[in-house]
Amino acid sequence: MTSTIERAVGPQAPPRPSRRRPRSMPADLPPGAGRSRRTRALVITGLVLFVLYSAAPLWWVVVAATKSQSDLYTTNGLWFAENHLLDNFQQLFTYNDGIFLRWMWNTVLYCVTGTLGMTVVCVAAGYGLAMYDFRGKGVLMAFVIGSFLVPGALLTIPSYLLLNDIGMINTPYAVIVPSFFSAFSVYLAKVYAEGAIPRELIEAARVDGAGEYRIFFQIGLRLMSTGVATVFLLGFVGAWNNFFGPLIFLRGEEKWTVMLGLYHWLSVKIESSTDLTGLVVAGSIVSMVPMVVLMISMQRYWRSGITLGSLK
């Protein structure tokens, strides 16, 4: 009797959930909209704070470069006073027989020469580690990655003794030659080569009779253009901001870099009564120009690298 009634009526359907919305959420908003708005507000607030934190020092330098020596200490540091920008630049380029221009030339020479050599060496090494299989490849890669853990300051004394034995101390080669080698750039080039260069393309070039050097220069470098540009840019920025190397290996004032020279002008205020803070601020503005020009001129390489996959 009971089974007959159950077959006739059928299993009871579960109760339908209530369609009522919580009172705190408006009826026209989808579920989770309040949480997504709060998350978006937190992200935007964090980005705004990060931009302010990054732009505030640059804003201060720009404002300070337009002030006279007395206005630097008597006016608001974040707003303009009387404009003395041209006078500051004229004093910067004529002080001590224009030694600042000499420092700028030295820095450009050291950075361009050293970074070009580093790019060629590190990109070729990364390409070789990515495209060739040989005995000891894993051990070599382990040494490359393990060298990240060695602080650069720890190698100061061995580097000094080595460069002193071969007669490079107090010469431009003491700054240029050590910058040819960068373990991080080798690792970056290897990772990029593995993702940008198909092995089938390399094998096809070999079948057609192309040599290894021709494959590297005509195929590998073109496909790695974005990675090469990144290695060059990171190396140039590091060489431009290099302070410890020139401080240890260079002696004469005529051979200093711009960073070492500006630091010397700041120390003059401590050692004597001469205050060169205005020249240091104006020199900081001028020293940023090559970085801005380099970033703008190399944008097309990243743009072409982003669209490379869509053209295959």
Could you walk me through the main structural features you see in this protein, from its secondary elements to its overall organization?
- With 312 residues, the protein is mostly helical.
- It has two domains: 35-83, no CATH class; 91-311, MetI-like fold.
- Helices cover 69% and strands 0% of the residues.
- It has 17 helices and no strands.
- It has helices spanning 2-9, 33-65, 71-74, 85-94, 99-131, 137-146, 156-165, 173-176, 183-196, 199-207, 212-223, 225-240, 244-249, 258-271, 277-297, 299-306, 308-311.
- α5 crosses α9 and α12 (225-240) packs antiparallel against α16 (299-306).
- The longest helix has 33 residues, at 33-65.
- The protein starts with a helix and ends with a helix.
Keywords:
single chain, 312 residues, mainly alpha, MetI-like fold, 17 helices, 69% helix
Provide a count of the helices: 17
CATH classification class of the largest domain? Mainly Alpha
What's the architecture of the largest domain in CATH terms? Orthogonal Bundle
- Overall 3D geometry? globular
Structural class: mainly alpha
Number of domains: 2
Low confidence ranges: 1-10, 305-312
The CATH topology of the largest domain is given as MetI-like fold
Arithmetic mean pLDDT? 84
- By CATH, the superfamily of the largest domain comes out as MetI-like
Helix content: 55-70%
Number of beta-strand segments = 0
Percentage of residues in DSSP E strands: under 5%
- Spatial separation of the terminal alpha carbons: 73 Å
**Could you state the order of secondary-structure elements as H and E?**
HHHHHHHHHHHHHHHHH
